Amino acid sequence: MISEWLLYMLFYLLSAVFVVFLAYCLYIHQVHLKYDHIPGPPRDNFLLGHIPTINRVTKSERHMNDLLLIWAEKYGPVYRLNSFHYVIINVHCPEATKTIMMSPKYLKDPFIYKRLFGLFGKRFLGYGLVTATDHDIWYRQRRIMDPAFSSSYLRGLISTFNEMSERLMDKLEEMAINKTPAVMHDLVNCVTLDIICKVAFGVDLNLFKQTDNPFQQAIEQCLQGMVLDLRDPFCKFFPKNWKAIQETKGATVLLRKTGEQWIQNRKTAVEIGEDVPNDILTQILKTAKEEKVNNTKDHEQMLDNFVTFFIAGQETTANQLSFAIMELGRHPEIYKRAKAEVDEVLGTKRDISYEDLGKFTYLSQVLKETLRLYPTAPGTNRWLHEDMVINGIKIPGGISVIFSSYVAQRLEKHFKDPLKFDPERFNVNAPKPYYCYYPFSLGPRSCLGQVFSQMEAKVVLAKLLQRFEFSLVPGQSFEIKDIGTLRPKSGVICNIKQL
Questions:
Q1: Is 22 inside any structural domain?
Q2: Domain presence at residue 270
């Protein structure tokens, strides 16, 4: 009797599963009917869509952005990708880019950015400036942060940029004397992290005198875990990933605990009347007090932005500098011209002034062209909540739209001979790119720290060109490694000679 009852239960359970699966398949079919008029590569299969192809690329030596570029060249400025019932539209049409990204009414896709709220069950970027999809939450935070990135405040940071950059120069001098090849990505990663810790939070890590710093390792681990989680939603079910997942959880906890400790130390110092540095954290706490930001929820959002600063700020500037050094090493004529400008502006003086930064015209072109070829944050997205016609194709609303700066900035129709490194594209007299160059995004959600980042990059690169001669070690790869941000695969290995 019991066995018969179990058989009935099993039959009804399997029937229910079959009905649900059939209903889901019918729903996917309806999604296909709704969006299949949009061009796109053939799906690998009905259910998974393009996931198998994307997984193959992720596991190979290629990176996903190159595949997106190939598809853009083949299928045009608007094309479709499928993943189960989820559809993503890739857009690199300048007019649509302008319309959508310059408007505050098109929000970030909550499906994608909410996945960055946490990593494997641990709160990660939360509702920080990058990931907040609710406009009111984002706007309130941006209003609190803005004074800490005003031009008047950033002007006062130049001495810290000089001080921290000198540590890199001292390290390079030591390596030049010992004739030790320098892995430039590792070195500039140390200086950019030192800078952001000092100018943002008043903490001096001095990474050139430390090895295996746990804070630095935690940032790297979180970046790798973030990509693993975003690109493979089923990664947690495979034992081969369990060690990396546990390490990512620990790294996430370490970053937030460190932030909590630094913020609390500063709050305590302010409350007891101690002198505190007039850094970004002080500015944020001052503005937050004026805004009456003092509950637990607001405190967690402050920690969200602490983590965001390091993930979105330090890593990206280090990668830009690494690629710039790589391209200068590959193009001696550009190297000589950039160095001549630095020598003309600085002469023999060591400290770079805020006024000097505006005189680095050609160096600025080099850095802009670096971001064109190697946008360190290679894309963003928006949620299209209404129907729209893009490039003559009707796009039904309720869909995610991806804007790949990597793709837009490497297309022949936007930039002639796009794979050539040519700083003259950004000469003041050259035609201006029309909504096809956006390494810091566009519109109201553009990067808050872009001026900070480029000031920092100019100081470090100018000092390097003034003080050292560098050449690339032969035989290294010039390929790109994709870990969510783009970095040089080889790390850019240079022979260094002191001038």
A1: no
A2: yes
